[in-house]
Amino acid sequence: MKESIVVYWMSRAIRVDENPALVEVCKTAKEHGAKVIVVFALIPNFPYANTRNMDFLLKGLVEVSDKLAKKGIPLLLYQGHAIDAFEYFQDKYHIHAIINEHHVLKPFLSSQEKVREWCLYQDVDFVLVNTACVVPVEEASGKLEFAAKTIRSKITNKYKGYLDEINLSYSQHMDTSGRFTIDQIETLLGNYPQLKLSKLTPGEEAANQVLSDFIENGLDNYDLRNRFDSKGQSYLSAYLHFGMISPVKMIREVEKTNHRNAPLFVEEAMVRRELAENYCHYQKKYDSLQGAWPWAIATLSSHLNDPREYIYTKEQFEKAQTHDDLWNACQCMVVEDGYLHSYLRMYWAKMVLLWTKHPQDAIDILIYLNDTYFLDGRDPNGYTGIMWCVAGVHDRPWFNRPIIGLIRAMGKDGTLKKTKFDPRRLKHDI
Ligand SMILES: Cc1cc2nc3c(=O)[nH]c(=O)nc-3n(C[C@H](O)[C@H](O)[C@H](O)COP(=O)(O)OP(=O)(O)OC[C@H]3O[C@@H](n4cnc5c(N)ncnc54)[C@H](O)[C@@H]3O)c2cc1C
Q: 347-370: buried (b, 16+ CB within 10 Å) or exposed (e) per residue?
């Protein structure tokens, strides 16, 4: 008789600590007297995969694999589509259920759809668990929200009910010798375009350390974070993107400090972040001008024929070859570090709208740069941030100006004043 298993298809929450999907899979396995197998499907030609983001992901995954092995749970890396991994398991095991994290972005949704159909046909339960938000996106709101002010109270009225710590008290006896290990990484990385690695250390241990360091040293300066050298930013975005830290734990720990800046952090890391999740969940055109509000589409359309002083190609932007030393310095940081200071990200994106022929060109170029280079790229926050800058999503109409119409303007002088950043500090050749 085939052994019974419950599969955790891990994709958005690369962690053991406070991972509700892992807790759910262990609970289901216990109920069915089954064993747990965790699988990560390395999808071929995944959009914007490169050595920077894959090294970070795979090393984080090895840490999880080693931790799970101590509980007798194997984490297997499958090179191919998840559905093929499940077909393969089906030959060896009886699968009771497949558990995956809740996603909002299109590349994952299409994989999930195929697995859902397969499960239906095979009579296997398919369950999605929220791991990326404090308040699950559909419980926060049942519709596309207009702005931070329309979603804020919906989240803040509910989130306390989600802040409890969850612990995993589960172990089993299963052979874990075929699990994913560090010696497989180098060969795998050979398949991807090469980019300089991030200075951030991958994995959930590192993520928890970054959170502790931020609470101890950064939170004090969080209100000053618009200044480039304030050391007020948390640097948690990449860990959140790969699910190496629990957003619930992050919010709980920061709130526990009762620090005067804790509410500011909660506004960004919970309200704004979960507003981005709401946008990408309910607006599937999150990567297109058509995903903007009607006033923004109308105003940008009415300025399409305005003369542009500068128009650059994607290659010129990528190589930081604009006339503007501030923009070029930002782009050098994007390429070199895979991270850009939050306030500068807005300037970086707004200028692309001014220096392209069409707002859709600006969106396409920004998505390409954002998702290729940022370690936290390919994230709902990225698409929403770009749409906020270029197409006024979650913003309101401002004053009518050439090219950008009623979209909020940003200027170089104001940005330099606010950030106190000196572009001459950086070399400008990529
Ligand atoms: C054009 C543009 C592109 C962006 N691209 C990305 C991206 O690809 N990935 C990404 O995670 N963020 C993106 N952001 C949002 C934000 O700039 C980054 O999350 C932040 O700079 C990351 O640094 P941090 O973790 O040190 O931020 P902190 O200031 O320490 O914030 C803590 C957390 O709050 C959340 N957060 C902060 N600001 C925002 C915001 N404006 N909207 C939503 N959530 C926010 C993030 O999860 C962040 O990690 C983008 C913003 C803009 C304007």
A: bbbbbbbbbbeebbbbbbbbbebb
Residue 100 near residue 109, CB atoms below 8 Å: no
Instruction: Indicate which residue's Cα is closest to atom 22 of ligand 1.
Output: 237
**To 10 degrees, the CA torsion angle through 357, 343, 374, 14?**
-140
Domains of the chain: 3-131 (3.40.50.620), 133-164+204-282 (1.25.40.80), 289-425 (1.10.579.10)
The model's pLDDT over 24-69, given as tens digits with 9 standing for 90+, comes to 999 999 999 999 999 999 999 999 999 999 999 999 999 999 999 9
Model's pTM, two decimal places? 0.98
Could you count the other beta carbons within 10 Å of the beta carbon of residue 317? 24
Distance separating alpha carbons of residues 198 and 216, to the nearest angstrom: 23
Distances in whole angstroms, Cα of residue 371 to Cα of each of 48, 191, 297: 6, 18, 24
- Residue pair 403/303 in contact (Cβ under 8 Å)? The answer is yes
pLDDT digit string (tens) for 247-259? 999 999 999 999 9
Give residues (CB < 6 A) around ligand 1.
225, 233-237, 240-241, 268-269, 272-273, 276, 342, 345-346, 349, 370, 374, 376-377, 379, 381-382, 385-386, 389
Cβ distance 30 to 78 under 8 Å? no
Sign of the torsion formed by the C-alpha atoms of 400, 405, 407 and 408:
negative
Q: How many CB atoms lie within 10 A of CB 190?
A: 9
Distance separating alpha carbons of residues 278 and 140, to the nearest angstrom: 8
